[in-house]
Amino acid sequence: MKNQENINKGNSTERNTILPEFLPEYSITKSQEAPFEAVWEELQGWMIVPRLGEKLTWGLYELPSRKRTEYTELAVTGRAEVHGIEGSRLLPHNMMLKIITAQAV
Questions:
Q1: 90-100 pLDDT, tens digit each
Q2: Hey, which residues does 70 pair with through a beta bridge?
Q3: What confidence tens digit (pLDDT) does each residue in 12-46 have?
Q4: Would you say 8 and 50 are in contact if contact means Cβ atoms under 8 Å apart?
Q5: CA nearest 13: which of 89, 76, 69, 81?
Q6: Which of 98, 93, 97, 69 is nearest to 9 (CA)?
Q7: What is the Cα–Cα distance from 72 to 17, expressed in whole angstroms?
Q8: pLDDT for 66-84, tens place per residue?
Q9: Which string of DSSP letters, residue by residue, matches 48-93?
Q10: What is the pLDDT of residue 97?
Q11: 71 class by beta-carbon count within 10 Å (0-12 exposed, 13-18 middle, 19+ buried)
């Protein structure tokens, strides 16, 4: 697939991403504003709206170092039909930057 070939160019250490290499410090504070209604259009577990042209990038960070260990680019590239059910064609590309292994203590 031509789209897949374009996304796969370069390995994970050569590719650029908009995500920071280290997770920035942040804090969560309770809002004094009233709750509001939200519309959830994203596919559960995928964090993307299945609408043609939608794209997103997300990453995972290791703690306590806060270093990015992988990131994923996801795009809706077209329409799809599976067993007569219409849907969207998603093209994910995952980049593992470091394999984390757990050691028994």
A1: 888 887 765 44
A2: 60, 96
A3: 443 567 889 999 999 999 999 999 999 999 888 77
A4: no
A5: 69
A6: 93
A7: 10
A8: 999 988 899 999 999 999 9
A9: S--STT-EEEEEEEETTTTEEEEEEEEEEEEEEEETTEEEEEEEEE
A10: 66
A11: buried
Give the Cα separation of 25 and 1 in Å (integer): 40
- Element containing residue 96 per DSSP (H, E): strand 85-96
Closest CA to 72 of 94, 101, 96, 43: 94
Nearest to 8 by CA among 94, 105, 67: 94
Residue at 74: amino acid letter = L
> Quick one: which H or E segment has residue 7?
helix 2-8
Residues in the chain: 105
Report which secondary-structure segment, H or E, holds 94: strand 85-96
Residue whose pair of structure tokens reads 């260990």 in the numeric block? 69
